[in-house]
Amino acid sequence: MSDHRRLGGAPGGMWRRRRWPWVLLVSVLVPAGACAVAVEVAAGALSREGAKPLRITYEVTGTAKDVTVTCPTWRDGDLSTARLTLRTLPWAGETRTRGFMSGGSFAVTLGATGGEVACAVTVDNGTVRTATASGAFATAACGGF
């Protein structure tokens, strides 16, 4: 017998199909459809977030007299890195962007003279990251914003 089984004693020789291929097919298609819908919803949310204007504020405070600041900047959706050498603190900077990509890193590295520093990053949506460092060549890194 192939994919059919003959019902014993059934009038007219009726055939019954196996159901397991259909159950298997449905059990594969339903989750695949649910995944496709989830991906579409996530893509729509990312698209809306990518068009939203954001303001990112950077701050450095402390007693150090020689620090290097490295921070991400965005222009028209393109990411670049700015590097500044500061001789006096406090310092604050700001950038505005659309199409913000999370995962930025703002780093403050002390020079040979050491000292203490604290860095802070604030994003419009309320994300705040802070870090501190002290000593020669130490780095305070505010990341993951």
Short description:
The longest helix is centred in the first third of the chain and has 32 residues. With 145 residues, the protein is of the alpha+beta class.
Write the layout of secondary structure elements.
Blueprint: E1 4-6, E2 15-17, H1 20-51, E3 54-62, E4 67-75, E5 78-86, E6 91-97, E7 105-110, E8 116-123, E9 128-134, E10 139-143
Antiparallel strand pairs: 1-2, 3-6, 3-8, 4-5, 4-7, 7-10, 8-9
Write a structural description.
The protein is built from one helix and ten strands. By secondary structure, the protein is an alpha+beta fold. Strand 1 and strand 2 form a beta hairpin. The chain has a four-stranded antiparallel sheet, with no helix packed on it. A four-stranded antiparallel sheet has the order 5-4-7-10, with no helix packed on it. It has one helix at residues 20-51, and strands at residues 4-6, 15-17, 54-62, 67-75, 78-86, 91-97, 105-110, 116-123, 128-134, 139-143.
